[in-house]
Design goal:
Layout lengths: L3 E5 L4 E7 L6 E8 L2 E7 L1 H17 L24 E11 L4 E9 L8 E7 L1 H16 L33
Parallel strand pairs: 1-7, 4-5
Antiparallel strand pairs: 2-3, 3-4, 5-6, 6-7
Length: 173
């Protein structure tokens, strides 16, 4: 299978987003530059970890405390939405010459087994802060967690293993 590399040195937009209802959502990261759009699929935990680690990295960079996020991007993912590949590994780098954070997402194309595709995005500190904020909101918009077992509560209900399956709603007691 041919290797596909998507490189966005000056992206207009880099966002995390979802498709589907809570509990059945599919998570994406989408990058746009000029007329090109690349969408990659990943797990909710990957989006959460990515936002957390980006935030930690930005906090260590000189001058990052003065950075305010770019205008919040609350728009939907660009359509048509087709995943270019599924993310299997994430790496970060810092490009000191341009003061940009470099995010590389690697993965396998649909049906592929080997890592053969990559998305590399060069983010300004403002874009990175904006990406972090939106990612945190997207992750938090899912199902609420059970206060006893911390597992997600489905819209149809929840049988809590810590309560031996007892259906009592612990939030209203």
């Amino acid at each position: 299978m041919a290797q596909r590399e998507f490189v966005y040195k000056n992206p207009r937009r880099v966002v995390a987003g979802t498709v589907g209802q809570p509990g059945e959502r599919v998570f994406y990261i989408q990058a746009e530059q000029d007329s090109a759009v690349t969408s990659v699929e990943l797990e909710k935990q990957q989006v959460a970890a990515l936002a957390e680690h980006l935030d930690e990295i930005l906090d260590t960079l000189p001058g990052s405390s003065d950075v305010t996020p770019a205008q919040p991007d609350t728009g939907p993912l660009s359509m048509p939405l087709e995943s270019d590949f599924r993310v299997t590994s994430i790496t970060f780098g810092w490009e000191s010459g341009t003061s940009r954070l470099v995010l590389e997402l690697r993965g396998a194309s649909a049906g592929g087994i080997e890592e053969d595709s990559s998305l590399t995005v060069h983010l300004t500190m403002e874009q990175a802060r904006s990406f972090i904020q939106r990612s945190q909101l997207v992750v938090a918009a899912g199902r609420r967690a059970c206060p006893l077992c911390e597992q997600p509560i489905n819209p149809t209900g929840h049988i809590c293993p810590r309560a031996n399956g007892y259906h009592r709603n612990a939030l209203t007691d």
